Amino acid sequence: MSFSLAYLFPGDVLENLTGIVPANDAQRLALERQFRLDQSYFIQFFYYLSNLFAGDWGYSFTSGIALRDEIGIAMPATIELATYSIMIALFVGIPLGYYAGMRCYSTSDYIINTSSITTYSFPVFWLALLLILVFSLQLDKAPLSGRISLLFDVEPVSGFILLDILLSDMQNKSLAFKDALSHLTLPTVAIGAVSTASMVRITRRSVIDARNQPYIAAAVSRGLSGWQIFFRHILRNALLPILPLMAIQITTLITNTMIVETLFSWPGIGNWLIQAIYQRDYPALRVGMLAVSTLVITLTITVDMFNRLIDPSREKYEHAAI
After folding, report:
1. What are phi and psi of 268, to 5 degrees?
2. What's the number of CA atoms in the CB half-sphere (13 Å) around residue 263?
3. Using CA atoms, how far apart are residues 225 and 205, in angstroms rounded to an integer?
4. Which of 19, 54, 148, 169 could in theory staple to 61 by disulfide, Cβ–Cβ 3.0 to 4.6 A?
5. What are phi and psi of 66, to 5 degrees?
6. CB atoms closer than 10 angstroms to residue 182
7. Cα dist. 87→54, 98, 236 in Å?
C-alpha cells in the first residue's frame, strides 16, 4: 500500500518521489532511470523494498533530512505518550473494573459504570481541548504545548524524554524532569482517560461473567471466604479474557495518541504526518504511513503471542472452532 501511494498522490509520480521538476526530457529520463520508473511495477517494487531494508527511506522535501532520522525522533515520542497512557489504563482501569464487577449492581458499581461510559463517549480531541481550556488557559497549571521547555537541552538517547533526562549529566536535572512531567500530564490524561474507561467496562464484564461460572458456586459450597474465592478463582480467570481485547485496543490507542499530538504540538509521528500533509511532503507521508502500520501490527502480534504464552488453551479452542 505504501508503494502504491506514489501513484495515487495527485501530480506526476517522478515529482512526487523526488520533489524535482525536470527542466528537460534528458533530465527526466535520467531521474526515471535512477528511481527505476522506466522499469515494470514489479522491478520498481523490488527496488523500493531493497531501499527500505537497506535503510534508505528517502529525504524530506521540507527539511532535507533523511526520513529514517526524522521517524527515529518522532516515533519514540509517540510510543512514550502511548506507553504512559496504557499504564494509566492498566493500573487504574483494571482495579476499578474488578471492584465494580465484585460489587455489581450496587451504588458504587452504577457510579463507576456510568462514569466510564460517559468518559468513553467523549471524543478524545474534545476532551483534550477541554483540558487545555481549563488547566492551561484558565488555571495556568500546565503547559499548553511542546515536550519540554526551551530552557533545557536534553540529548536524545532512548527517545523517552523522562528517561533521557535521568540518563543525562545535565545540571538542574530535577527541574528538567518536573518540566517534562508537566508537559506530559495533559496529553497523557486525555488519552489515558478514554483507554481507562474502556478497560473498566471490559474488566467489569469479565469479572461478572467469571462470578457466574459453576466453579464459583462450588467454591461457595465448600465454605471458602470471599477473599479466597477472589484470589483463587476470579482474579486469574477474569483476567484471561481481558488480555486478547487489549490487542484490539492498540489501534485505538495509537490513533488517539496521534490526534492528541496535533493539539498539544507534541513532536510525535502524528503531528509530524499532519505537517507533512500540509506541506505535501509525499515521501514523508509514504514512509510515515508504513512506520505507523508496522508499529500497530508489531504491537498487536506481540500482545497476541503473550496471550498464547499465558493461556495455551486458547489455541486449542481456536483449532476446535475451525
Report:
1. -105, -175
2. 22
3. 22
4. 19
5. -60, 135
6. 14
7. 35, 16, 19
- The answer to whether 108 and 310 have CB atoms below 8 angstroms apart is no
| Res 153 pLDDT > 90 | no
Distance CA 11, CA 16 (A): 7
User: Quick one: CA dihedral 229, 235, 240, 241, positive or negative?
Assistant: positive
Reported confidence tier of residue 312, pLDDT bands at 50, 70, 90? low
CA–CA separation, 110 vs 131, rounded Å? Answer: 25
Which domains does the chain possess? 22-54 (no CATH), 74-321 (1.10.3720.10)
Q: What does the pLDDT read at residue 318?
A: 45
Please name which of 82, 84, 79 lies closest in space to residue 159, comparing C-alpha atoms.
Answer: 79
User: What gap in Å lies between CA 37 and CA 41, rounded to an integer?
Assistant: 8
Residue type, 73: I
Closest CA to 270 of 295, 246, 248, 247: 295
Half-sphere exposure of 98 (CA within 13 A, CB side): 17
Q: Residue for cell digits 508489531? A: 298
121: number of Cβ within 10 Å:
9
Type and span of the H or E element at 301 = helix 282-310
Closest listed residue to residue 84, CA positions, set 205, 207, 256: 256
The secondary structure of residue 66, as a DSSP letter, is B
pTM of this structure: 0.83
Question: How far is the C-alpha of 225 from the C-alpha of 220, rounded, in Å?
Answer: 8
Please write the tens of the pLDDT for every residue from 71-94.
988 999 999 999 999 999 989 999
Give me the phi and psi of 62, to 5 degrees please.
-80, -40
Tell me how far apart the 2 most distant CA atoms of the chain are, in Å.
89
